[in-house]
Amino acid sequence: MTRSAGTILLAALALTGCHPSRGGHVTAGDVAVSHAVVPASASNTETSAFMVIDNHGGSALTLLGVTSPQADSVILHRSIGGLMQPASGVQVPAGGYLLLAPGGYHLMFEGLKRRLAIGDTVTITLQFDRGGPVTVLAPVLNYTDAVSDLPMR
Asked: Distance between CA 82 and CA 95 in Å, rounded?
């Protein structure tokens, strides 16, 4: 992209109120992870993470687990009636997506190695039922920025 084309694109985004995602993104085979963010938490021991997982393949994928070197464990949760419940084996439909966001499926980091601060980067590795692990780097943002960065599909 030329410098003038980039300037025009940024100006157009500013005029429409849109901005490029500040969240982490990666593509590995049929899986594309985007808008990966971790909101800064007041807790020294836990926080959450949000993202979009797209499946560009012709068959469903199942998210089996998640790990991060920054936490003792990462648990996939689902909010139901205001309560968080652990979830496992969540499908990402063929040609579809899984939105991990407040009020639905999301990741919970438990046993943080240290308190995460705005500007930190968190390594998140997703394990699926087929294909290799997919690792994405997610920035730590304030909660409002983290949530506003998620697409509402």
From this structure: 30
Domains and CATH numbers, the chain: 22-148 (2.60.40.1890)
What are the backbone angles phi and psi of residue 5, rounded to the nearest 5°?
A: -65, -40
Closest to 136 in 3D by CA, of 40, 60, 68, 65: 68
Tens-place pLDDT, residues 37-86: 999 988 899 999 999 999 999 999 999 999 999 999 999 999 888 888 99
CB-count exposure of residue 108 (10 Å: 0-12, 13-18, 19+): middle
The Cα 62–Cα 129 span in angstroms is 5
Q: What is the DSSP letter of 120?
A: -
Q: Is 4's pLDDT higher than 90?
A: no
